[in-house]
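Changelog excerpt

This revision adds worked examples to the README so contributors can see how folded entries look when concatenated. The first example is reproduced verbatim below.
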Amino acid sequence: MMRFYLRFTFFIIVLTANPKLIASWDDDETPMTFNGNYTPSSPSPAPAPAPEPESSVSCVDELHGVGSLDTTCELVADLNLTRDHYISGKGNLDVLPGVRLVCNVPGCSVTVNISGNFSLAENSTVIAGSFRLAADNADFAVGSAVDTTGLGGEPPSGASGTPEGVEGAGGGYGGRGACCLSDTTAKLPGDVWGGDVYGWSSLEKPEVYGSRGGSTSNEVDYGGGGGGTVAMEVLGHVRLNGSVLADGDSGGVKGGGGSGGSIFVMAHKMEGNGRISASGGDGYAGGGGGRVSVHIYSRHSDPKIFIHGGSSFGCQENAGASGTLYDVVSESLTIDNENKTTFTDTLLLEFPYHRLFTNLYIKNMAKVAVPLRWSRVQVQGSISLSNGGELNFGLARYASSEFELFAEEVLMTNSAIKVFGALRMTVKVFLMLKSRMFIDGGGVTMLGTSMLDISNLLVLKESSVIQSNGNLGVHGQGLLHLRGAGDTIEAQRLILSLFYSIKVGAGAVLRGPLQNTSTGGLTPKLYCQREDCPVELLHPPEDCNVNSSLPFTLQICRVEDITVEGLIKGSVIHFHLARTVVVRSSGTITGDGMGCKGGVGTGRYLRSGIGSGGGHGGKGGSGCYNHTCIEGGDSYGNADLPCELGSGSGNEESTDSVAGGGIIVIGSLEHPLSSLSLEGSITTDGESPRKTLKTISSNTSLGPGGGSGGTVLLFLRTLDIAKSAILSSIGGNGSLKGGGGGSGGRIHFHWSDIPTGDVYHHIANVKGRVFVSGGLGASEDNVGEAGTLTGKACPEGLYGLYCEECPVGTYKNVTGSDKSLCNLCPARDLPHRAVYVTVRGGVAEAPCPYQCVSDRYHMPHCYTTLEELIYTFGGPWLFGILLVVVLLLLALVFSVARMKFISGEEVHGAATTHHGSQIDHSFPFLESLNEVMETSRVEESQGHMHRIYFLGPNTFSEPWHLSHTPPEEIKEIVYEAAFNGFVDEINAIAAYQWWEGAIYIMLSVLVYPLAWSWQQSRRRLKFQKLRDFVRSEYDHSCLRSCRSRALYEGLKVAATPDLMLAHLDFFLGGDEKRNDLPPPVHERFPMPLVFGGDGSYMAYYSLQSDDILTSLLSELVPPTTWYRFVAGLNAQLRLVQQGKLRSTFRSVMRWIETHGNPALKRNGVRVDLARFQTSPSSSCQYGILVQTIVDDVALNETEQQHPWGVQIDNTSGGDLRENFHFTQSPSSSMNHFRHRDCGEIIDIGSLQFLKEEKDVLSLISFLIHNTKPVGHQDLVGLVISVLLLGDLTLMLLTLLQLYSISMLEVFLALFILPLSIIFPFPAGVSALFSHGPRRSAGRTRVYALWNLTSLVNVVVAFVCGYIHYHGSSAGKKIPYLQPWNISMDENEWWIFPGALFLCKVLQSQLVNWHVANLEIQDYSLYSDDSELFWQS
């Protein structure tokens, strides 16, 4: 570009200094000559301007125009010229539309040198042999033309552009003229041509004429004239919409076409859609194209430029060669034949010494040749071949030259490069699309090796081919990619090296040697008879150079990653200094049939032509004919490191002989392959005869054997063979006429750096098929022997072909691959509950590593946590003894602490006793007057009016409630309407919310002790609210007494300790002023007294005798007698069990008749067991009916006055009138029990019809129930302490045992029922260390509930253990678990849960005794002797 600016500046200065300066062009050019050293002469400088003529033609006189050349000259009429014209001036020159300037004399020159503008209007024409223009601007309108076609003068002297002879060949200039051969047997179309090229040195500014075409006659010259010259140097811009022509003239059918001329255009800017042409003329043989050069700084809407050769009428497929188009600004050379097929070349000369082109374009069927020996084609940019373009180096018949090609890029699209000789190509990018490169090294005698050095990218696409019949090295630093089907790189010996990655696409081919190479040219023949291995196969050179002495026919060297989806085929294939090789499912690396036809293990032949199979890895199959057999080829080679070619059938001269398999070597001893991934196939199979098909003709006697398999030698670190992959080296099949099958070849895995120990990883993952079998024959006797499949000797701990870890339970302490080297581990070293484990890298020595069968077992003995604890203390027996001793000692300490704690409490409690010691020790605490809540102080009974019992057992489903109708006894002291309001408020307070019952139901299902505690807490809260309401919140407005309303007195609420029975007492206020109130006690009889409780374990039946009741009865019965009676009755009621009322009430009734009534009758009182019910839908309550007995008459009167079955209407029995209905039968003969009627005195006859109601605890009453005291309270407490500690210990041991199974079992044992297995111990401790018998007894009962509930958890633990030790173990075998090592521990799993269950059962019985000892301290209460009972 700098040269352009310098020249352009110089041109402006010259024209400015001398406007009339005219450059002079000579018609002739000095012929091109060469020095002795083939150095061409220096290009001639541009012709110096000719001296200005004395006078220029005149606008008016000579040109017949209008105006002046110094202003504006307009040519208005046609002008025929007969000589050269020089037109010069300072103005403009305009050729008006339709005006023609014609000079038909060949070589006639028209020169225009003006300072102004030049214009050629529409349809105007300038015709001359040479047209030269120098102007400020130039305009060529549509239809205008500057035409020098066929008017060229004589070409330069010494040029050979005009053909000789009478062959009618075309003329040559920029390209050779065509020549039509009449005899194609002696010469090829490409060997002959017409006129030759010249003018190569003036590419930048062509200025010579084209050459004339040849003639087909000696008498008449029919050849077309050569094209003229056109040179335009314009300072400004050129607007070209017309035509600038320098074409060769047509020679017709009898003469050759003339070659194109020269066109040079120099301007600052050019635009338009016109035409520039220096094409060859048509003729019998077309003329060659001319030369065009454009020196345009700015080009817009480029005119079409044509430089093609002329068409040949005599040989239409061989047009004249293309001329040249040179762009001075871009320094690019274009050779374009406009899709005219040709065998004629456009020559490229003097490349080594010419200024470098930037780009070279060969397109549209142009054929370019570099004919000189030792030539170099070098450009700064790219070489582009497209649309049938062809670049040839050297001559086909003289392939003895070496050529060099240097460029940034070589881009080929549907084109070809042919090299006759050797090629050294150095580019950065080489892209081929539907293209072909053929390198002919001259046949067998090869001058050298061709090298393609592509530094960045080499891509072949859509059946592109690189082929060499010699050695070919392809080097690069980037990517080599054969995209798909038909893309091929093949050579006699092919070396691919230094690429970062090579990818052979599906259908693509890498091949070496060539597929159609003659037998003598096969490289493997060089060492077919060698029994030793060529050292280069094991230790290849690292330089990756092409060397004919090496045994490889195809080598891929120093390539990081190789991906094969197509075909790689060769005789000796080697992958060297590669990192990874991946063979996809469609990919194949093969040496099938590429080995020797003879070889060391060649087959043998009978005279009949039947042959045996070739040998290699085994012996070849015998060949048999008419019961005559011949042995197969011998086995040869080293199985541990094979590197031999397979042997053929022998008889190499026969066309029916077959070859053995080739060699595939991947990696080397020093540089193994990092990873081989095989999804397709790697094969070196022996070849089979072509006549092994069943269609073999019966008239031939030839039956060769099959070739033996070759060698696959893999130097690897890791291998992955997919399920669809095939790795084979099998023998070829023999002829069906009796030929023997070839033996299998050899496959060897030579592992490198096999990791051992902790760094071991699997080096092979083989799922596909590996074959080394022999080939088939006509019968089983003709089958070839199998080959060998070997691997490198494995280190200690590993075995097998792929060096895998020895099987679990074995060890290997020697080097080798045989599985028998893996010895069984000693069974005595394996603990029970242990299995041998896989160790990374295998086991190299005994003892073998093992692990416990579960994480719950602990190394090294695989004991459970429980067993570890047991064996830490010397084993089961010693542990058991120590455990018992520790429990006894702890129990003693526990009991001593308990006694100290309780004795201190008793000392402090003795000071608060209000009764004598005899009463305190004679009566249980349940009879204490203080046990009735809200009656801690002695109430005055004189004011007591009436007692109403609350209906209902105070449960969530049936809470306490009162009837709205006031009894007759209190109607005189209450306002009935206000009483109803009072009852509503009481019932509302006593009612429970729904969620309270819902919580109780859920807790009853999950944790019953908590449900009981929840119920008691809600009962206590309800009672507290009732008491607070009656005591302080209620205004007593229902009472008539003013004093009672003012003092908030007259109403008292009390309840039994179990909070199941409550009553409301009414008192007089003292201001009633009635003497008949309150009624005397004898008027209150018969008096019903209701039992508290419901007969369950937690709330047994009991009679509560408070101060009011005692005071009322004291008028008839002494208090001590009544206290004793109540104590004895309660002692009997403790033994009554819900669900067993019929049997347990019998003893109560017997005691009343034997112990109670005899003593009470002395005081005129009798009691009977009775039941009470206000309505059929309400619950039934039990109690006693107290009545007076004066004498039998009085009794009869009472019976008559108060017949049972009706409501009592006298005042003595009216206190429960509204509450109960009952039927009286003093004697059994008078009793008649109605089953559906509830409310009667219970006797022996009606007892059997009692309705039994059972709860949850009644179902297991054999474990938890109230019993008689047994005494020995301290001993019982000690035993309970021992069992309680034992319970804790066994619970922990059981959970520890379950933990050895799994955490799930522990979770199940703990949470079915939730945590019930844990709470018995804290509940028991709380019970044993409670203050006072009453509190201790209550907490002991809760402890009993927890103990009973925990049995469910124990059963769950038992079931979990059973399922684990019997269910799962029976159907699941532990691998490598030695059956003779299993101890009896698994069979004794039930001991701890069983012992825990037994411990809890024993605790239940002892707790029953302990509760009885606490609640009944006077054992005479259960005395059968009534006198003893009343004396105590």
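The second example, added in the same revision:
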Amino acid sequence: MDFLIALRGTAEAPQQSPNETITKLADRLAQSTQLEDRRAALLSLRGLSKDYRAEVGTIALESLLLVLDGDAQVDPEVAKALLQTLNTLCEVNGSLDGTAEQRDMALRNTDLVLKDPKYTQKLFGLLNDASFYTRYGALQLLNTLVSNRRTVVQNHFVNAPEYSQTVTSILEEKRDMIRNEGLQLFQALVAQNTDIQTVFAFGGAFESLLRIIAQEGSVEGGVAAYGCLLAIEGLLKYNSSTQTYFRQLLPSLPPLLLFPPSIAPDQESPQEFTLQYWDEMKAQNAGVVVSIIGIMKAPEHIRLLTELGIVSNAPPQIKAQALRLLSSYNQTPPFFQTVTPYVPVPESNGDEWDRLEPRRGIDLLVSTALDGEYGGVGVTTPTNKGTMNLRGIALTVFDDFVKDEESATDLLNGMLQQPQSIPPASASGLLLYGIQTLPTSPLTSSVATRLQFACLLFSALFHGPPNHSNTSPKAIARAVGGSSSAPQDGSGGNFFVPADNPVSSAPTTTLRAAEDEEDPPSSLLQLLTEHLSLSMLARAKVIDDAIESRLWDKIIVGYLVLLCTWLWEDPKSIRIFLEAGGVGVLVEPISQTSGIDVLVQGLCAFLFAICYHFNREPGEITRKTLHPIITRLGADQLVSRMARARDDDRFRHVNPDSIVLPVPPSLVISSKVVEGEIWLDWGFVEFWKANYYTAQRGLGADPDTVASGPGDTTELQLVIASLRDVVRKQADELQAAKAETAEAKRQHQLLTAKGAAGDDLQKKLEVVQVEKDAEREALQKQINELTYQISELQEKKKDQEKEQEDLLVFLEEMSEKRRRDKAAMRAAGLDVSEDEGGDEGDKPVVHIEHADVYKWGSVDPKDAIFRNLSWTVKPGEAWVIISQSSECRGELFQMLLGKRRIQPRSSNGLFPFLEPGSPSVTPPTEFRKDNVLHVAFTASKPIATAGEFTDYSARYGAMRDQDRQTLQESLLESLSQDPAPPPPTEFTPRDNPSFREGAEILNAQVAVIQDMAAKLGLLAQLDIPFIALSNGQQRRARILRQLIRHPRILLLQDPFAGLDYIQRPILSDLLQGLNQSEHPFIIMELRPQDPIPRWITHVALVQNQRLTIMSGAEYHHDSSSAARGSHGSSPKDSSSAAGKEIASLNDVKVTYDDRQVLKNITWTIRGGDRWWLRGPNGSGKTTLISMLTGEHPQSYIQKNFSLLGRPRRSIPTVSIQKQISVFTPEIFAAFPRRSGPGGLTVVDAIGTGFEGTYSYRPLSAEQKARVDLLIQKLAPGRTKEDRNLWGDQIFASLSPQEQSLALLMRTLVGGASLIILDEAFAGMDDGMIHRISKYLQEDISPDQAVIFVSHWEHEVPWSNAKQYTIQDGIGQVVNSRY
């Protein structure tokens, strides 16, 4: 300790300067051999750092960092002092009061600390220290560093993801100080960094955070719960991978708000959710929960958001947040469902609540918009800013809801009915009552605002798509009556609350006409015109009162907004408005030069322009009547008025997020309440912007020129003319009917005259009737005798039929045995005589004779797919089709499926054994839906047909709800088009006959599925989600899906493609047995290079519009036949030398729940390698490929996994996609296929391979040349022009085989360091395979590595390819492929 005494100096020697002292302390810290000396120097530097930050940072920072790597790791006291010192040097907040130079110094110190990543990692390592002060100090310093240089700290953390568990464990620390600092660090680390978000998510951070939230009391918790909720939100923002993972935890969100995780549609929400105690902290927590729900956008949360927004007693800001989220869902909220509302008891300050009668959600939504929370009986002022914001969002949600015309017309039709109560409770009644209610003076802010919202809500009913039919919203609105309602009291409420006292309304002044008015308004539109006029009159009378004048201006604006929206493109409504005095109402404010609100004046000008432009109905006021007014006012003046309104702040400040504006301070009545106001809504602002220039141009139109519009087209004129013809014909028919009526009257008179003669005839008839009765009795006796004789004959006939039926059954059994014997003889290669070969009762399965086959719509003989085609398939035969070219491939199957035209068609049909009268081969079953079914294996998954890339990564680990359907559930669903019945509960009566019948059917279906699945080797996979099956398992599952439907004929295209050497013979034996039993008949189509099963009896070779038939034995014997062809280039040696390391996997594991997919995978891939990856179906090949491409979420958490020479976790996925290019069945199925405008051409699709994207990217000249070169080498076509034309086609228009070729070229085009080809040759013809194999042998760069995945050894292009075999998740390198 002597050196510290020396630092102070003595009386004789002068004291040292701060720089000299700091220098000596830094030297001592770095050089002293005694821990006590180093500790003392460090403590001194800590004290000096507070007053001499710049000096300590400049001189001693490097020495301090050495301590971080040394003593701090073993001495808690040193660690504490060091961390405090470094935090002081780097803390920017501490220098905010200082100069900019001091702040820059703090940032420079931060940069020095972060210069070497090891120091950051040492700090994360200190978080595991047992000492409280060490952990707390490390957290403080890390928070300071991440606050100053967040991106740098994040990059260092990505390279050391093992510390993610350390950070996560701190979140569950019991000491609040450490936990709060840990939460702050966690939130900063995950901010805007998807890689770190993914590491934490798949490391269990979600589960830990949810546990902490539950321990803290859910949303009732304090700061800790709030921090954890923010952390979850940070993990989910802008990260589809973490969102996909979190979907399995979605049921944990509703209970945080006391809402059940699942609830029946007709079940009432629990009262503990609806009525809760809310404080400020709980509101903050709930707000974050709602935000998380909004990020996930799960359909199951729509009801939660709906009831939280309109039923619960949550604070207004929470309700507003929930309602705003409803607009972001694609699904319509269940506003027509019934819910149970509550209202606070007046004067109870929200402590007591009354339960009201159930109402529809739309009723409460409209009530919220009109009157605020709880229909105006709330604990907050209806016009305070928070409540106004809620009302504005309710208006926006209503606007979105009624854009569906069915919803709008439902509400308008409700207005045609008489209200059940005043004030009404339904949405229709509330809206109608709201705009019919006459405003009175003096006005209150609540009444004026209520009328504004009523007008805006009503105008939203007309925001849907244009419709000029008699059932459109505007047509229905014209039929609504116009009886005016009495003014309501200032409260504006419309709920009946038992605790309320009746309040009488006694307005001092009324502004309506005398009650004895002779002609009251007959329609709602006339009433609105009258109210607009009276409102302007009232506004003129209170011009000296600034507050009330502004309230009347708001009401006038509301009326004008509604009228503008209503009258647009509606000539009939314009005629009603004009004849009700609308011209005078508008002209006066337009012509005023002062004392008029610019918004009112501009809207009047806009409405006048609408009336002039769309005035096309005959009436008293025509365009010629209005044109002189325009001339007098001046068209430029009208346009100027509209422009001033558009430029007004109240117009410009309206946006999609908020329509509430602050009240000017000069008009605020009370400083205790922060009030807000509205003038316009976003729907009207959009309407104005879309139609402003149309109205402006209309003002300059000639009055004699009728403006064009949607109702004034040529088509409409034709319709009118047609209707006139109909009316004329109906008039003629009416005249004819009148003439027939006159003739009928004349005939009636004649009959009356003949009535007398009829009396004599009646007497004669009575005599004849007596004679006939006697004859009838005699005949009845004969009938009885004959009936007895017939009954005896019928008994004898039944006995004979029973004997015949037994004989037919015996003959059928003998015939069935005979057919099986013949099939066995053919399979054994024995000759079958003509007598043995055909049964008189056997009908062909398929029969077509001397016919031409065309595509539908094609009639030119040159376009025939097949010419003079003759083909017969008999029972007992086994057929395979071999197509020599991709053009003819699949055409016979298309013909059998009825997708091709056959000319001429056989009189017995294409399938004689299915024609009426033929014996049934298959027993009836409720499962069978189609006689002929088809299974194609072009892709192992449903192919994308839209213009967007389909995400296939959900199969890796966590899956979306729609992806969780198991194979068995999927198969059960395919057996019936009806939706599956709800699962039984304890309330389901077991003695219900329909229940027993449904259970029996379900059990029978399950038995069929399990039996056939066992035969296909899929029994163990029935409970696995379909999307999680391997490609080969999905192929077998698709065969299973069709077999359980019991077809009569099953068409299989490439059934053995993608199956391993174990499954191919199993499937072959199953198909042989099915074909021999004729349940069903099997017809396969294979490629020329594919070996055909030995049990095949006949081969149909398709080439050049012709069909050549040969026996299976002939095809097997003639191994050199041209029909077999070659299967590509002969394998060649790969001469590439091992290059730089591209991928290194060491002890890599992948686990889904309890299922381990990859186990201890170790594999190194270098430049120049040529690998053959093989393994049985379901062994883990697809998962391994997803790890190599970086697409698998668990690739982030592997400790010993590097790609392109760097740890996987440190490489952005986008960079990997450029360097590792892959072709898989998943990509083939997911690639976008838009056939219309904007669809990718073949060149565009190939060009996406340069960036590894799935959408259009412009290509440079060099890239375009590269694409053209590939097309010339690999594309089909005999000439260069043919191949160029192929490249210009729309990708979606290609055949599946050619689409596969284009996507393989996409994989090759970018020259990626690693190319992965998974089942690349599936479905391709011999020519395609030959060209691709040659390219892979000769044109792949020596620096590139290739992994070729296939179950067929002959497909591998290189004879000396290295082999990596994987089975049951365990991989190994095999030295030789032979």
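Reviewer comment on example two: The mean pLDDT is 79. The radius of gyration is 42 Å.
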